[in-house]
Amino acid sequence: MKKLRAQKGFSLMEMVVCVLLVGLMSLTVTTAVNLANKVYKSSVFESESEVLASTLNTALADIFHYAENEGTADPYLGTDTKKLRVFTNTSQPYYIVRGQLQLCSADGAAADEGYLCYVIRTDDRAYKAYPIANRGTYSTSSSGLGLILTDLSYVYDPNTNMYSGSYTIRSTDSTLSSKAKEITFSYCSIAGSNETTDQSGG
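Above: the chain sequence. Below: its structure as tokens.
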């Protein structure tokens, strides 16, 4: 009888403690992995948003350097006339006549989808949007992280011939919903202004 008692297995309490310890270790590892993944994504967001801002600001410099101010935004396009300005830039490769910047889809087919475009109103009271940068500029195949723009606004100062404004870069990843990088820009136009009347459409 003494021999049999010496060979007994784990008690129920010992099994419960073992399961709890394994569960606690698994939870700790999972939490650490998730935290490391979030830190990695946050780091990628910071670097990728800098690259995107540099690309877009280079294009904006080309556009605004030769932009001629034409007045406040076209109300027909459904934009806030206090936040946007109409301008003309007939230099290549843009050739913008009474256009304005707006956030559209990557192909320019829909409005307000987070991609920076310049929009031109056509004669038939329609508008056509041209993306300033292609879809690949907003994401990388290596990280899989997507970026979009929000809160675009810019104004023109006739005293200095300066276009200045800002936009915000955000991630399409739900785990980075709180991450945002505000980018400001300011460019001097050598073309000046052609605004002679109030074109606010009010």
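Residues 48-188 form one domain.
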